[in-house]
């Protein structure tokens, strides 16, 4: 992807990925799901998860899996509120950008 992903967009993507699982999801799965839409490293995502946890957008719990503890993340009510704000902002932003990028000289809609 040639466009940079800012921290707000990355937060929105992570919250959307975590929201998909009602019982929570673990860090590696989040990384894989995010990587399916944007190119990002694990070293970038884990600080995002910690920040979202600190901001009360995600809650965390550990669960044993195959003899090891796996850290799971769940979206909180505050996280849902924030995700809905991101969705509204994304809709407005992407609509305006699409109008500019997809506008041709013969197109008079703007």
UniProtKB/TrEMBL annotation:
It comes from the Bacteria. Residues 14-83 form the Transcription regulator PadR N-terminal domain. InterPro entries: Metal_resp_DNA-bind_regulator (IPR052509), Tscrpt_reg_PadR_N (IPR005149), WH-like_DNA-bd_sf (IPR036388), WH_DNA-bd_sf (IPR036390). This is PadR family transcriptional regulator.
């Amino acid at each position: 992807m040639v466009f940079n992903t800012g921290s707000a967009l990355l937060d929105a993507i992570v919250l959307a990925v975590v929201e998909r699982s009602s019982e929570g999801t673990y860090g590696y799965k989040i990384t894989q799901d995010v990587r399916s839409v944007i190119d990002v490293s694990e070293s970038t995502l884990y600080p995002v998860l910690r920040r979202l946890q600190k901001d009360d957008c995600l809650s965390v719990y550990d669960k044993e899996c195959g003899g090891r503890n796996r850290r799971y993340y769940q979206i909180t009510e505050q996280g849902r509120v924030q995700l809905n704000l991101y969705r509204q902002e994304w809709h407005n932003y992407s609509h305006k950008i699409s109008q500019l990028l997809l506008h041709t000289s013969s197109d008079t809609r703007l």
